[in-house]
Design brief:
The structure is a homodimer of 132-residue chains.
Chain A (H helix, E strand, L loop, with lengths): L16 E7 L5 E7 L1 H10 L3 E4 L4 E4 L8 E8 L5 E8 L15 E2 L25
Parallel strand pairs in A: 1-6
Antiparallel strand pairs in A: 1-2, 3-4, 5-6
Chain lengths: 132, 132
């Protein structure tokens, strides 16, 4: 079967696009990473998620060592083409190198009581110089 | 109420971290963007999502023009600290500048029939040189 593929805009961010792996059943966000054009095409061709590691400077197939591969059943692209969702079936114990199901296992807050509604932090001032 | 905040690693990617806005009720991914440290702290302080536009080179409060603000009720951080989920209540018609609920309203495939299971694309060869 021949299909047309709407390609992400790899030119926008030095050859990479942001990839979110989302559990196709629970809709839990499992991990966020990048991929390059070949990694994207490999994912499309094989149905298994391939990413590009910016720290190691190379492409990697999710689960190539752990066996915890991600079977991709749907691929969504955002309005400006620089971010993509892989809807996946996560094989094995999880997506995270810590063996947790999701890499997002921590809240940035460490509340003393259960959080309710809006955040209650107040930032009085921000004096550090941020260089972007 | 005083809380300790687990700060993202802004140093890793030139002062920015990836932000995913996820609908707190439906778990739909609404948009992906970046924020800087001040934007993150503003979000934490106000409970409304603030991002940093890399194309415009400045911070922006979601909905500052459209009114479609995002009320942030939970903030999750990933294992290596360079990506964050804002669990949000999306006010107004949607998160996307196209007025759609989510920026991810397109599949990369344009199937002629409903997709089933794994992708069926085959990539014969990739001859373009990719520079990353």
């Amino acid at each position: 079967m021949k299909r047309n593929v709407l390609m992400p805009n790899f030119a926008k961010r030095n050859g990479l696009v942001t990839i979110i792996a989302q559990d196709k059943n629970t809709r839990e966000i499992l991990m966020v990473a990048f991929t390059d054009e070949i990694g994207f095409l490999e994912t499309m061709a094989t149905g298994e998620a391939v990413y590009y590691s910016t720290s190691r400077g190379k492409r990697w197939r999710k689960g190539e060592e752990s066996g915890n591969i991600q079977k991709v059943s749907q691929v969504l692209i955002d309005c400006d083409g620089d971010a993509v969702i892989y809807m996946v079936e996560q094989i094995g114990e999880g997506a995270c190198h810590t063996s947790k199901r999701s890499c997002f296992y921590r809240s940035v807050l460490r509340p003393t009581t259960k959080m309710k509604g809006r955040l209650e932090i107040r930032v009085i001032s921000v004096t550090r110089n941020i260089q972007v």
